[in-house]
Amino acid sequence: MPPSPTLRSGRLTGAALAACLLVSPPALAAIWSIDETIVRGETELFWTSPSAVALGASGYSWSYEVAAVSATVLGAPLEVTELIGDSFPLTLSGQSGGLPFLLVDQQLAEPATGTAARVRIEVDAAGFGRAAITEAVFGSLDLGGGSVIDIDAIRIEATVTVEPAAAPPPGDYSGDGSVDVYDYVLWASAYGSSDPQTDGNADGSVNAADYTVWRDAAASAAFAAPEPSGALLLACGLAGLGRRGERRR
User: Fold this and answer.
1) Domain with residues 168-241, CATH architecture
2) Which among 52, 163, 167, 184 counts the fewest CB atoms within 10 Å?
């Protein structure tokens, strides 16, 4: 039989109730700036981020924004961001599982000038961001009357943000970010199985050692003292169940 949590008398204070939640610190996001120029005569350009996102996360949220695209004509920049917006998503966000993953791989085109390129943005298995501009074709501006001016270069400015999903704290078998009596209930119902959700020490079996993981985490959430108050643990659990009831309503 799985052990039951010990209950003792105790007085619940506001500070102690606030300590009921044991939440993992937020993972730091990787924010990369892309500012690259490809010139006439070149057909491809490659970029690698100067840093890597944290490895080992169960998932990642990501986004990118193309802030500006400009064409160089007669040595002067010409803003063309809105002109390519119909063919290429200037902003995009999403979520992915583990590394590596793809953000976008799409053709960028500006039919009026005949300028086009394929743009690919991804995060590799080592956590580095990578961008590739390939199949570049440089067009020209038709000024009328037979006057045509070539586009000499294309500059792309963008920002890529990648953030690892926060790992749940030890003993958080429900994955809701807090350690409470509800996690004990999940552990007790899985006792004797190989359920990975409640296998706190990842030894392949749900047993008393996983109860210890939950008990120690609950103690850390409730008190700094080695022995937590049973009444406080119960209050934490009831508070957590109350929050879930409110969400259901």
Assistant:
1) Orthogonal Bundle (1.10)
2) 167
Six token digits for residue 87? 């063919």
| DSSP calls for 184-235 | HHHHHHHTTS--GGG-TT-SSS-SHHHHHHHHHHHHHHH-SSSS--HHHHHH
Selection from 114, 72, 117, 108 nearest residue 90 by Cα = 108
Q: What's the one-letter identity of residue 152?
A: D
- What are 14-55's pLDDT values in tens digits? 433 333 444 444 457 899 999 999 999 999 999 999 999 999
Structure tokens that stand for 13 in this block? 């204070």
Global pTM value: 0.61
Length of the chain: 249
89-131 per-position pLDDT tens digit: 999 999 998 899 999 999 988 888 899 999 999 999 999 999 9
User: What gap in Å lies between CA 191 and CA 206, rounded to an integer?
Assistant: 5
Among candidates 101, 105, 71, 103, which has minimal Cα distance to 88?
105
Say whether 137 sits in a helix, a strand or coil: strand
